């Protein structure tokens, strides 16, 4: 695995077809990383660098991404998922700049139990910010495939819980790709949602920055482990004309980034347990790491919109 | 019904005598499928009609057992949870995990005497 060094710009692929930068998994234990991309050239900066500090100061909108809290999970990979969510919440509360809101990209609970949702809500409420949710497959395990989730988090949403809203000139879209999954397939958006999405962005000018969030990656991270969405490419086709599109996902419990044309893809860490890098284990189940290392694999994302920059700057901060 | 009951009694009675042989296995109406590392093992299982199949989840992540034709469907199985289903009609039953649909398996149910 190529781990780019901080402060060293990543080169575009020399494929002669398109300007594409492909960012691989990056984890610098104990530091946050700020990603900035100008004109298709992604750059990573150590959080402590002066440039990062300047970028943060000039940002117009800051919001947070948390993901995969899996409340109720108590297996060896993390016997207390509630404790690590509590630490994530403490980290967010201690931020010097108060974000405008949070996005939770799903798997709030481990088994869709009312108590798991209650426990998560109780903690997340302490942050004191509006939270925009999309469900993970662990949140729709009830008999009615997500009724419990929709009652709690789906007010004002369409279908299985999708919606959009505008904030500071950015158009945000929350998608659901974890229901009605087909045998042998991957994540699934479905016709009704795709139609809605097409209509939702139809009237927007191409200069509107777009942020899309959904649980399962909309791009093919590793289909062998189900890390992708069957009709994700169709959703992205509606967004190709926009100058700045950021796609934020969870599900794979590790950071992955990719830039393709005007679309930047990003997956977040979990606050509960890590999962192995693609293909490095017999399956994608919870990964046990040495005692004391766990918090280096968990964390939250911090997203900054800097006017004039094509890309949002995303800082991923581990719990320790 | 009478035949089945009679055979069951006979099997129970003969069990100790046949314990060293292989004949008993063919009569055992129960089989297991282990769910491990996001796979069903064995992925394809062939059983005589009337067999009760038990799925056991050995992963630290919940899975389901969902028939493609909706003839059976488990709840979410947490670690070590089990789901059983008795196959009373011959046929091929494709199934998958509705949470991780790349996980697929098949039960082939053979008619009696085949």
The amount of helix of chain B comes to 10-25%
The proportion of residues in beta strands of chain A is 15-25%
- CATH C-level class of chain A is Alpha Beta
What structural category characterises the helix and strand content of chain B? alpha/beta
Mean pLDDT score of chain A, rounded? 83
* Tally of separate helices of chain B: 2
In CATH terms, what is the architecture of chain B? Answer: Sandwich
- Spatial strand arrangement across the major sheet of chain B: 2-1-4-6
Q: Between the first and last Cα atoms of chain A, what is the distance in angstroms?
A: 22 Å
Shape of chain A: globular
Which fold name corresponds to the CATH topology of chain B? Immunoglobulin-like
Largest sheet of chain A: 7 strands, mixed
Going by helix content, strand content and strand pairing, the class of chain A is alpha/beta
How many helices of chain A? The count is 6
Low-pLDDT sequence parts of chain A: 1-44
Secondary-structure element series of chain B: HHEEEEEEEE
Say how many strands of chain B there are. Answer: 8
According to CATH, the homologous superfamily of chain A is Metallo-dependent phosphatases
- Count of domains of chain A: 1
Helix content of chain A: 10-25%
Q: How many individual domains of chain B?
A: 1
Compact summary:
With about 325 residues, chain A is an alpha/beta fold.
Mind explaining what this structure looks like?
Helices cover 18% and strands 22% of the residues of chain A. Chain A has a single domain, classed as Metallo-dependent phosphatases (Purple Acid Phosphatase, chain A, domain 2), CATH 3.60.21. By secondary structure, chain A is an alpha/beta fold. The two termini of chain A are 22 Å apart. In chain A, α2 runs parallel beside α3. Chain A is globular and about 50 Å long. With 114 residues, chain B is of the alpha/beta class. Chain B has one domain: Cupredoxins -  blue copper proteins (Immunoglobulin-like). Helices cover 19% and strands 36% of the residues of chain B. Chain B has two helices and eight strands; from the N terminus they run ααββββββββ. Chain B has a four-stranded mixed beta sheet with strand order 2-1-4-6, with no helix packed on it. The longest helix of chain B is centred in the first third of the chain and has 17 residues. At the A-B interface, loops of A face β7 of B.
